[in-house]
Design a protein that fits this description.
heterodimer, A: 189 residues, 12 strands, B: 160 residues, mainly beta
Amino acid sequence: MIGNILGGTMGKVAPSGDFESIATVSVTSSQAAIEFTSIPSTYQHLQVRFIGRTTSTGTGSELVYFRANGVSSNTSYTRHDLLGNGSTVYAQGTGSGNSAATFYPDGAVNNGATANTFAANIVDILDYKDTNKNKTVRILHGADMNGSGVVGLTSMLFLSTSAITSLYFAPVGTNWNTYTHAALYGIKG
Amino acid sequence: MPVTYENIATTTLGSTQTTVTFSSIPGTYTDLVLVISGTVSTNQNYALRFNGDTGSNYSDTNLFGDGSSALSNRRSNQTVAYIGVSGTNPSPTISNIMNYANTTTNKTIISRSGYATGTAAQVESRVALWRSTAAITSIEVSQSSMLSGTTLTLYGIKAA
C-alpha cells in the first residue's frame, strides 16, 4: 500500500466556472416534487445529481416522474431503459402517447426498504437550450438495498425544441422523504 | 463563482500496487467522484472500503454486457463494495459517491466502467451501498494488481 493521499498532496484546483452549481433542493419534510425553475440559458448542458427516498411504506424502489417546462402530456415524451435487478436484465421502452413515457423506474427507494438508504440519480441533458433540437435526457440511476435493488440506464426524449427552463422530479403516487437532496449544475461549452 | 468541481487529490502509480488510500477527505463537498484510468494484470473488480470499515456492511448490484450477453449480479453483506471492472488495456472507471458527508443517510455509490482487450470486453453499470451513516473521510481502493501508470483522481462536487 502506498502512502496515504491527501495527507500532504493536494491536487490542482480546476479553473472556476465551467461546471457551476445553479440550485439545490433539500427536502426537510414530505413534499410532492423537486423542481428547478427559471433555469438560466447561459450554459451548454445541464446535470442533475440527486438521492431520493419516498414516504411510501413500500419495500422496493419507486418510479419517478420527469417533466421539462411543466409539460406533463405523455405525447411529449418517449423512454427506453436497460435495467439489472441482480439476476435478470430488462430492456424496455415506450413511445409517446403512453403514460409510462412520463416516468422512469427505480429513481427512489420507498420508506419501507432498508433504513436510511436512498437511490442515486445522475441526469444529463445535453444542449438544453438549443431551439433546433428535441432534448435527450440520459439517466444513470439505481439503488442497492443489501439483498435487493436495481441499477439502470434510461434514455428519455422530450419532444420539444423549446429551451428547457424548468425541471420536475416526483415519485409516482407518493412524496419525497426528508433528506432527499437534489442539485442542478450547468456545464459551459 | 466558487469552484464547484474540484480536484481533491490525484496519484499516478510508479509501480504495481494492490491498494491506494485517500485519507483526510474534507467534508465540504456534496458528492465525490473517483476516476480511475488504469491497467491491471488480472481482470478483476475495483473495490472500495470506507473509513477503514472491515465489517460486512457493503453490497452492490451490477448490469453488464460482454459482447454476447447482458447479465446482472448481486453481492450482499460483503467487506468491500465493487465499483467496476478493470482490464489489461487502459480502462476507465467513474464512481460517484453521493452525499458522502451526510450523517443521516447510508452511502450510495453509482458507477460506470468498462474494458476491452483483443479477446474480451465488458461494459458495466453498478450501484453499491455502504450501510453506514458516518461521513466518509477515507476511501481505500483495492484491486489485485494495479499496474504502473494507473491514475486515480478524487474530485469533489459542491452544490450551491
